Amino acid sequence: MDLNLKTHTQHFTNPLYLESGRILEPYDITYETYGEINEDKSNVVVVCHALTGSHHAAGIYEDENKAGWWDGLIGSGKAIDTDKYFVICSNVIGSCFGSTGPMSMQHPYQEYYRYKFPVITIKDMIKAQRILFDKLDIHRVHAIVGGSMGGMQALQFAIHYPNFAKNIISLAATYATQPWAIAFNKVAQESILKDPDFKQGYYDPEIITEQGLNGMAVGRMAGHISFLSHESMAKKFGREYKRDDGLYELFGKFQVESYLEYNGHNFTKWFDPLAYLYITKAINIFDLGRGFDSLAEAMKKIQAKLHLISFKDDILFKNTEMKKISDTLDEIGNNNHTYIDIDSDYGHDAFLVELDKFDNYIKEALNG
Predict the structure, then answer these.
(1) Of 6, 48, 67, 362, which sees the most CB atoms within 10 A?
(2) What is the pLDDT of residue 163?
(3) Is the peptide bond preceding residue 26 cis, with omega within 30 degrees of 0?
(4) Interior/surface letters 48-67, b for 16+ CB within 10 angstroms, e for the rest
(5) Among candidates 78, 1, 12, which has minimal Cα distance to 47?
(6) Contact 197, 214 (CB under 8 A)
(7) Any catalytic annotation for residue 137?
(8) Which residues contact 345 (CB under 8 A, 6 or more apart)?
(9) How far is CA 92 from its chain centroid?
(10) Mean per-residue pLDDT, 91-108
(11) Segments making up each domain of the chain, as ranges
(12) Cβ atoms of 278 and 101 closer than 8 Å
């Protein structure tokens, strides 16, 4: 069967009450669907995206050459099998791919929100998604799956909407963002803020799309380092030097340097800098225990079967952070969960790259 890839945008006029006490109204959510929904709507799988991901998780649009970010996992006969499941992936609020974010027009004034956009949290992101699902008349789903910030959303769903999903699969995430990850985000934030072309947030988005933003490119390089690992970099680049550069040229480059440069600069042409600041803020303040006396108290809310997946050499969200969730569940007597640490030396990005190491695990979790 084909993927039946469809993109939609839903407009909401009711206010969205945010965790900060502020409200967002009106707002849009852009989302993508794959497969067919069955009659009793029992085959819905929700996919949550990471920091720079979007609703476009699988398939290829006519005008592009690159498939969605989890294309290897979602589709006919794949781990998240679109012959069986109806899959929904929505772009989070605060992002820059169709859902309302800092560079959306502020109603009723025809001007960008910019800094008038409220700080949003992971909890706000899933609340907006839950409202979207209600609108689509979907009140319970078979599973929610996500990696990194997507894994944070999945865990937040488990605690705040305990009866919404039967299964929750969270990869390469954490129970609360640790100083190490916040530090990498700080480098990115400072790099953006200190770039004169950022114009203190009052840049022209068209110019950025055309020329990129050098400060943000530097920040993204730091991000890339945190997504990889010592081993994966050694394997991928070794000490190879760029073919046309001389070893004794001051600005001659190692392969790893030109990779960081290329990826960093490219990124700034398709991802909005203010959205980056808002979403990294949401990641930094993520804490499953917020609003509860402890992480254990928060975990007592969980009704879904929880599947936790960490990656051995992830330096951004260490495997011990996922294990802590599993240990906490054990402590409170919740035996309706599984935890697996994937033997990978790829680092944090393994959840996007080494699919063959966990796709069977996801298949089994979905098929019960």
Answers:
(1) 48
(2) 97
(3) yes
(4) bbbbbbbbbbbbeeeeeeeb
(5) 78
(6) yes
(7) no
(8) 229, 231, 232, 235, 312, 313
(9) 9
(10) 96
(11) 6-177+287-367, 181-282
(12) yes
Q: For residue 119, what is the DSSP state?
A: P
H helical segments located in the chain: 122-135, 149-160, 179-193, 205-211, 214-227, 230-237, 255-270, 273-284, 295-299, 319-331, 350-353, 359-367
* Cis status of the peptide bond prior to 108, with omega within 30 of 0: yes
Burial class of residue 110 in the structure, from the number of CB atoms within 10 Å of its CB (0-12 exposed, 13-18 middle, 19+ buried): exposed
State both tokens at 303. 């009704």
Catalytic residue among 124, 195, 314, 349: 314
Residue closest to 55 by CA, chosen among 101, 89, 28: 89
Closest CA to 121 of 160, 89, 64: 160
**1 pLDDT more than 80:** no
Q: What is the pLDDT of residue 137?
A: 97
Give me the CATH code for the 6-177+287-367 domain, please. 3.40.50.1820
Catalytic residue chosen out of the listed positions 148, 191, 229, 344: 148
**Cα-based angle 128, 130, 133 (whole degrees, multiple of 5):** 115
Tokens of 186: 């700080």
pLDDT for the residue numbered 334:
97
pLDDT at 368: 87
- pLDDT at residue number 62: 86
Residue 63 banded pLDDT, cuts 50, 70, 90: confident
Distance (Å, whole) CA 152 – CA 134: 21
Q: Is the per-residue pLDDT at 134 higher than 80?
A: yes
Contact 313, 231 (CB under 8 A): yes
Phi, psi for 81 (deg, rounded to 5): -80, 115
Domain 181-282 - what CATH class?
Answer: mainly alpha
| Confidence label for 319 from pLDDT (cuts 50, 70 and 90) | very high
Distance of CA 323 to the CA centre of its chain: 20
Instruction: Respond yes or no: is residue 148 known to be catalytic.
Output: yes
Catalytic position from the list 49, 142, 224, 348: 348
314 is an active site residue: yes
